Amino acid sequence: MKIIKKYALWLLLAILSGAICGLVGAAFSKSVGFVTDIRAQHNWILFLLPLGGLLSVSIYKLCRVKNIGTTNVFDCVRTEQNLPLGLTPAIFLGSCISHLFGSSSGREGAALQIGGGVANTLSHIFKLDETSRHITVMCGMAALFSAVFGTPIAACVFVLEVITTRLCLAAALPVLVSSVTSFIVAQLLQIHPERFIIGNAPQFSLSFLLKICVISLAGILVAFTFCKGLSLGKTFAKKIFKNEFLRIAVGGIIIVILTLLIGNQDYNGGGVNIITQVFEGSVKYEAFALKLLFTVICVSVGYKGGEIIPTLFIGATLGGALSLLLGLPIGVGAAVGMAVLFVSATKCPFATVLLCGEMFGFKYLTFIAPLVIVSFLIARYQGLYNTKDIFKLIKNAKKERV
User: Fold this and answer.
1) Which of 58, 124, 301, 340 falls between 20 and 30 A from 251, CA-CA?
2) Which structural domains are found in the chain, ordered by start?
3) pLDDT tens, position by position, 88-134
């Protein structure tokens, strides 16, 4: 009876956190969209990017948040580590500043932090024990991701896959309930889910298989470069510029100069509009490399937002460009590139399969799912997050039963 009451509490907390995160996620999505539209209408705002960086650092200091990122939110579930109360407003405002002034940042990484922060605050309000707090934080992360991206099933599995602790088995249903609740709330508030149209895929053949394998291998190499670049970039930036105000200002100046040299702002902001253009048949061969460079610089110097949308941008433009060279439909190449980059960077194969199913349509998983699993098995290097291998978790769980 005690266990039933406990589980009922978790489900109630899941619904509550899902509803709240749905509201917060909708506000976050609309805010990011609003500031992005302002920058699109006034290109000169880009020149204020260094000042925006200084403002972002100041907000973090005001909120007393230091050295907190997405990985720290995951660690909050694995350990007794708590999250500062100022994390939610800090990452919310910091991400909006990044998109307003043209940093190459996403929003899903920020959503995970916001969701974790909201749920962690709820756990303090209700004075939850550690187990209930961990499950509630997982619910919050999945709920915000679901609200912002519009993929409730993938959001649930992504959080469970990244956390990979024994607690995930008990948390699975509450996390799913929270994710779906948040998705419904966001839809009622007219937050449109991310969806891309692949079009008709070619019939399966040896030639088709070889071509998508080429894109997959290229994607693995680019994902390795991206993850390594982020790791080395952060270390290098902190070593050269120990003062975080100077670090982010110099990074902003570099981004402004690069943007002026390129002659457009395609690589500033998240870039969902560019991903959509790829599926409509328009792609530049150098786009994936430039987005990679812009994102590494922005994240390394401290601009807030996240790396997930930039990862999908790099995958779509890489896959789209290679599909033109290989004679594949551009939508197929872009979808394969996005899938391979995402799984190679996050090390979450099941979430990647479900994400692709929700974004592209589940009928395309016949050729995407095998590539995702193979890419995951090949790409064994450290990804964006300090995650555990879910296959090892399953193996260890079986040993414990024996």
Assistant:
1) 340
2) 2-188 (1.10.3080.10), 206-378 (1.10.3080.10)
3) 999 999 999 999 999 998 888 889 999 999 999 999 898 888 888 99
